Amino acid sequence: MPPGNRFWTEMVTARDGIALATDIHLPDGPGPFPVILERTPYGRDQTSRSEITAADPRPASRAEIAAFFTAHGYAVVYQDNRGRHGSEGRFVKYLSDGADGFDCCAWITEQDWCDGRICTMGLSYAAHTQGALGSLDAPGVVAQILDSGGFANAWMAGIRQSGAFELKQATWALKQAALSPEAEADPVMKAALLGEDIRDWFTRLPWQQGHSPLRHHPDYEAFLFEQWRHGAFDAYWQQCGIWAEGFHTRYAKADCVHMSSWYDAYPLTATANYTGLKRARRGPQRLILGPWTHGDRSNTLFGDVDFGADAAIDSWAGDWRQYRLRHFDHVIKGTPNPEPAVRVFMMGGGTGRRTAAGHLAHGGHWLAFADWPPPEAVPTPYHLHADGSLSPAAPAEDAEPLCFDFDPAHPVPTIGGSLTSMEPVAAGGAWNQVEAPEFFGCAPPYLPLASRPDVLAFQTAPLTAPQRVAGPLTATLWVATDGPDTDFTAKLVDIYPASADYPQGYALLLADGICRLRYAEDPTRPRLRRPGEVVKITITLFPTANIFMPGHRIRLDISSSNFPKYDVNPNTGEPEGNARRRRIAVNTVFLDASRPSCVVLPLIG
Fold first, then answer.
1. I need a labelling partner for 300 at 20 to 30 A (CA). Which of 247, 385, 403, 489 fits?
2. What is the 3-state composition of the chain as percent helix, strand, coil, each rounded to the nearest 5?
3. What is the pTM for the complete model shown?
4. Dihedral of CA 436/437/439/445: which sign?
């Protein structure tokens, strides 16, 4: 430590000689101290937009956050990922974070100002870096708060989703390429990247390497296409940094909080890491699932829906800084921690009226559960019927299948949902599933998505009593296509009845999922289909918790695209990320007793 300094920057050397820019903030006093570490690609000295509270919407700087924790006796360390901001080396998205994080922790524990114990924190990519170093059981790690990230299985959710590619990787790559050290050092490169209109480029998919908006920064273009073209769940996806599931049995024995939200990209990651690490007995595990979009934990409005004053984490946590301090103090100082194992926001139960600001008042409240999935939830199949109904009743023996034409040139547009990092093309949140000018890919006459001929909508009769759903969601479908490959999508929707405020009702999206058919049986061995071959598939929707109120309907929408959230299957069977052609597919969903398609709802009586 430099004499007399309580803050300084040091270049910490990784095992391959690359120097990583590292800021150290120390409390007053002689030490040694427990350490809080955050590793980020967004700038170790740059303000995070999410460091707000309900009382103060101004984001606190990293220096202010460090001052908060140092005042309570913690040293705080911020480090730039390699190839980002002040760190040397070539940026390798996700895959260098395990070794670099391990080396950072090893260096910290060797310092005379460290007492040997490290707590980690961070949102999004800074949660991925935690999952990566935790997977290698980095030295000294005793507590973690993985906020909206940590990649349990990036092939299932986060980079791909059951084979389909998440196009947030493309929007993220273009934005971050323009902020890279290479672009900062090359004004021509920076101007070229900033001059690209990503919305225009999304009308010209699929891209070709060297002829994409990222062509000006070949390194960033290369990692995007590397992710896009690795379709099968092979060794590429089983690497540290993107596959914590494969490391759960050797993960750091840390006291962990896993946090995500219904309209975030990472609730599958949070729940899978919670259940997997608990099963592996690696340390105490806690889970928080809110109604938020990505990192917006102190807000109450997400998309067009207001979830009420209780929706903000501040309603029960004090604020996010206080929550983190309590968790770290429990681990480091042994203070009591009264938090339940699982805290979940149950959406619904509001007035259903328009708020003064013009948004749907859906409401909601927090629940505590002993575990996840909630032990009291009963998985209940709701069958899809040929007349468009959805019910627990078994389908008829002779029910006819339903077919639709899926034209990849005219995909179903994404209207909100669980996504992040897609601005300015798309944004997450709860929205009425009706086309509108503000949503990419929508066109006049702006009708409900369920009116499209390539959307099959199945709904219950109006409910006579509240129906509570909380837990994982899956749809099991018997399907076929007339070509070598296609996709099937599923969306769970809460259907409001007509009212004075909403004369046409309101179709509130709760959760969605997708399955690329070539991966249906074995993700490690993709197989193209024979035309008309009947396949049983499982679509993993993101989890949810919602009260369907009396008079509402539960609806499941089945289709074959959700763009621009996912890349569009060309239905040709061409290799992933290399398609040049498109064909219209005739897709079929079977609904008879011998091939019963259903959605499994976790009902709480």
1. 489
2. 20, 30, 50
3. 0.96
4. positive
